[in-house]
Prior knowledge:
The protein is α+β, with helices and mostly antiparallel strands. It has one domain: Aminopeptidase (3-Layer(aba) Sandwich), CATH 3.40.630.30. Helix content is 35%, strand content 26%. The protein is built from six helices and five strands; from the N terminus they run E-H-H-H-E-E-H-E-H-E-H. It has helices at residues 15-23, 26-31, 38-49, 77-80, 100-114, 129-137; strands at 6-9, 53-60, 63-74, 82-91, 117-122. The protein has a five-stranded mixed sheet with strand order 1-2-3-4-5, with helices on both faces. The longest helix has 15 residues, at 100-114. The chain starts with 5 loop residues before the first strand and ends in a 19-residue tail after the last helix.
Amino acid sequence: MSEPLRMRRAQAEDVAEIVGMLTDDVIGRGRETSGDLTPYLKAFQEIDADPHQLLAVAEEDGRIVGTLQITFIPYLSRRGATRALVEAVRVRTDLRGRGIGARMMEWAESQARERGCALVQLTSDRTREDAHRFYERLDYEPTHVGFKKPLPPPAD
């Protein structure tokens, strides 16, 4: 019998597993690399030091099976409410369809409630139709249109 899913704050030694999940996907393969973990470890240090960030992993039977990141953002709108932005939600490819993602999102929502957030929001690449159906099953609504603009790296 499997142990119940356990969510916890990610640690530096988890970064390789997290990056592995980020690269194991059509979009991630084109923008991530698991060869040199240096930039990921640097980012992890910044995330871990920021009290408004929570990078978490899901464990089952002693192994990492999923990850997500929550950013807690104070706003002036909604009467000064705080919102939780959930990003980089990943479940190991070979374990999808077992309810792990739903339990991870339930945990993320509980973290948001504990911090007094008024809402939880997320973005999902428009090509991730399976993910869109997943979030809609969890009562997330596609309420906004998002825009992004890549910036060139800083000049040396």
